[in-house]
Design a protein that fits this description.
255 residues, alpha+beta, Alpha-Beta Plaits, 3 domains, five-stranded antiparallel sheet, three-stranded antiparallel sheet, SIMPL/DUF541, 26kDa_periplasmic_antigen, Outer membrane protein
Length: 255
């Protein structure tokens, strides 16, 4: 094969490749111009504007549930004697509670222990001189009108430790007011968003995301001393607040 023939074939191959590249480029341009490829979703989202606001609502409620810790501490020279004395006193306390209408489900053991008692004389080697038995129960009830009786009769029956009273808004009561709080919180968020949009010269066209956050209830707490006199222990449930918040992200556009 001559040198001229080889060069002719090479030129022809290069010419064909050039034509193919031009055809492919032209087809790509026509396809894109006709809208055959969507814009990148990430680029579309990056152009979207939004503003995020929070709204809240709260309502005062009187707690409907009380929780009380009642305990008996006894001491004796032997662990067996301390345990038996403690059991007798605690059984009397539980019996007094049930006489007031409390059920087994309302009374839960929260502490049970027997520990040695050591001599505390200065300079002495610690020596066991007796034993202390402790038993505590957590009483939870909605009978708020009987709280004074619960404490006083428990003490009269042998309870010598009352650690405190906490008042609780039950789940049932919270559910009763939750729907109204959601509506009020959303209206609060919407009002804030409208005012903010007006100030920014934009308009709200939709909602991007939303969420609910239920605030912690601040429960009143009373430290109840052991009643030693025959005067009814005053118990006041006070007032709590149920709070609910919403976070709403609105889609906006320029006016």
């Amino acid at each position: 094969m001559s040198q001229r023939t080889s060069n002719s074939k090479l030129y022809m191959l290069l010419f064909i490749l050039s034509i193919a590249v031009l055809v492919i480029a032209a087809e790509s341009y026509v396809f894109a111009a006709a809208g055959g490829v969507d814009a990148n979703p990430a680029e579309q989202n990056s152009e979207q504007k939004w503003l995020s606001v929070s709204g809240s609502a709260s309502v005062p409620v009187v707690p409907d549930t009380a929780s009380i810790s009642l305990g008996v501490i006894t001491q004796a020279t032997t662990a067996k004697e301390a345990s038996e004395k403690n059991a007798a006193s605690m059984n009397a306390v539980i019996s007094a509670l049930k006489d007031l209408g409390l059920q087994d489900r309302d009374i839960q053991t929260s502490l049970l222990s027997i520990q040695p008692v050591y001599s505390t004389e200065e300079g002495d080697i610690p020596t066991i001189i007796g034993y202390s038995a402790s038993n505590s129960v957590q009483v939870t009830t909605k009978m708020l009108d009987k709280l004074s009786d619960i404490i006083d009769r428990s003490v009269a029956a042998g309870a010598n430790q009352v650690s405190g009273i906490s008042f609780i808004v039950s789940e049932e009561m919270q559910k009763q007011v939750r729907d109204g709080l959601i509506t009020d919180a959303v209206e609060d968020a919407e009002d804030k968003a409208n005012k903010l949009a007006e100030s920014l010269k934009v308009r709200i066209v939709g909602v991007k995301t939303s969420s609910i956050s239920e605030g912690d209830l601040l429960q009143p707490f009373i430290s109840a001393p052991v009643a030693l006199e025959r005067i009814a222990t005053p118990i006041l449930p006070g007032e709590s607040r149920i709070t609910l918040s919403v976070q709403v992200t609105y889609i906006i556009e320029d006016e």
